[in-house]
Specification:
The chain is mainly α. It contains 6 helices and 5 strands, in the order αβαβαββααβα. It has one domain. The chain has a 3-stranded mixed sheet with strand order 2-4-3, sandwiched between helices. A two-stranded antiparallel sheet has the order 1-5. A hairpin with a 3-residue loop joins strand 3 and strand 4. The structure holds zinc ion. Zinc ion binds next to helix 1, helix 4 and helix 5.
């Protein structure tokens, strides 16, 4: 069993491991017409606007720092063992993206950045204030997956991510052993 350093980080660990690809038998998706999409900062701005359109978060925020680093560096940062994490939001630091992700050209990779941006916007948001820590992290994760899937649907992607509620054992957590 992979031991994770904190609940917050565990959420991120499941992001990429949980991908299912369902587009195999579909006709090819239309060519990406976003070739005029600029650099990562412009993509990030656009994603914040997408989040605003799909939720009640506001897009007019300071951009978080985004670090593109080797995958192993993210795993070392957020997990105690190799854990297949490709993207992570670390409060007070920023968003870490594995260098093999291409958020500018690959819609699924872009949706992973969007997912982490949702976590950035969730940080300190009053709507999570009344929840116990485990429930808070579970509902943040559930929301991030929902917005990510809404985004994928909005760009006509057939791909979806799966939220595993079972990763959050909040009941036994609350029992305090
Ligand atoms: Zn997440």
């Amino acid at each position: 069993m992979v031991r994770i350093r904190s609940v917050v980080v565990m959420l991120l660990c499941s992001v990429y491991a949980a991908y299912t690809l369902t587009a195999i038998a579909q006709t090819a998706t239309p060519p990406d017409t976003s070739s005029d999409v600029g650099d990562l900062e412009s993509v990030t701005r656009l994603l914040l606007e997408n989040i605003q359109a799909l939720s009640d978060y506001r897009s007019n925020v300071t951009l978080p720092p985004i670090f593109q680093v080797p995958q192993y560096a993210i795993e070392a940062k957020v997990c105690d063992e190799p854990c297949n994490v490709s993207a992570a939001y670390v409060p007070r630091e920023g968003i870490y993206l594995a260098a093999n992700l291409d958020p500018i050209r690959e819609p699924l990779d872009r949706s992973a950045l969007l997912h982490e941006l949702v976590h950035y916007l969730q940080q300190g948001h009053p709507k999570f204030a009344g929840l116990a820590p485990c429930e808070r992290e579970r509902s943040k994760e559930e929301e991030a997956y929902a917005i990510q899937n809404a985004y994928l649907a909005s760009i006509d992607s057939k791909e979806r991510v799966i939220f595993r509620a079972g990763d959050f054992d909040c009941e036994s957590d609350g029992a305090q052993r």
